[in-house]
Amino acid sequence: MKKIVLILSILLMSSGLYAQTDDGFVADDIAQMDGFDLYPSYDVYLQMMERFAAQHSDICKLIEIGESVHNRKLLAVKISDNVEDEEFSEPEFFYSSTIHGDELCGFNLMLRLIDYLLNNYGSSDYITWLVDNIQIYINPLANPDGVYRGGNNCVTLSTRYNANGEDLNRSFPTITEPEFDFYQPEVKAMMDFAKKHYFGIAANLHAGDELLNYPWDSFYANELPLPDNSWFEHICRRYVDATHKIDPEYMLSNIAPNGYVFGSDWYKIAGGRQDYMNYFHRCREITIELSNVYNLPPDLLDEYWSKNRESLINLIGESLHGVTGRVTDIYGKAVDNAEVIVLDKDHSYSTVFTNADGYYFRYLPPDSLYEFTVYANGYESTNQIIATQNDTLVNLDFMLNSGFANYPLSVDGNDEVYFNAHCFNGKIIVESSKKIDNLLVCDLTGRIVLQTKPKYHKSEYSLDNYSQRLYVIKANCGGKIFTHKLFITK
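Above: the chain's sequence. Below: its structure in token form.
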């Protein structure tokens, strides 16, 4: 069916029948968008994004993420007080909308949000504080070919899919299939964009229901535990509570009586961007379903902006609530790509990493005690305890001494020694290409949990004596010393 729709749309577009369509939903002149009570034509959309950056060049920068199948631009703006600089000490936040081309409400609301942030900077203390302390990225339109399937001046013939007939929100890498042979261009562009950044919190805007959806979409809670479940519920609750100041009945349904739902409890999907961002980029992304109506009529746009404005702004502010800090060596040099772990809480897929200047951001519920440790190649780990505070970004720095690395210290070209250790099915699996003379497993306090001389190149050890935490495995293998980190979950 998708292929039939795709073929028909291509034939109609090539014949020119769609080219001049005006459906009453679209502004074909930038002046008609001044009230934000229409959707822009594709050309007007480009003009608006360029004008945002030109009129507010001190705090706004236009970014080209990539192109769609039909070479329409995937655009974002960066809003920040030092917009040309990479401020590694500031968190990065990301909004993206309309990955499904017929879910239009968020497209309009993101344009309004950009305009609101830019025009209230310097006059609103709160907006100024956000822009001064967060690097904000907003991509109003992630699937332009889907939105403008009927031509650049028409949105009512929009489709969920891209021009290849593919659902972009089912096309990202998955936990069980992390690499594909081919990615849709819109997906590939978004993946490359995410890899260039250290997004801490993100949201993907949809329509078709009115609720918030948080990870996981592709696993039930008992299949893949979500260490940050309470934090996700915390930020979702705050979002919904703010909308209820305008409409107490908004975002309440049988599916989500509180206004938010664990993704797979609603329905399971694979290849969604939400799970991709959370698992592969450690970015806490949620999905916001704004409207029950897909092609929301223009006369309702003001109403939905009013309902969501405060919540959308406050969600950006969540970037400044939690724990941050800088990881350095004893000489003050930044340690990048160090793994920051919350002990007795994190799983291997929920830890965060330091950015290029050694900064990290870890989002946690307020008013609780947490023990942190940092693990970096070539350094000794160290632990610290900190209490989170409500609506505050608490600082926790780490200074690391040189020590054992967590990767092989040396390998010889033609005589490479292989060693690996991992957990599977309730056991530690140790594998080596040569005999292991000695194997040592200890926790970060130095307590030895296991010391043995394996008899085989592949050995298995029960996890009965282990708790959920980080361990270090040291092995003398083929005359070389290897160290390996192992994060054990139960």
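Residues 1-21, 405-415 have pLDDT under 50 and may be disordered.
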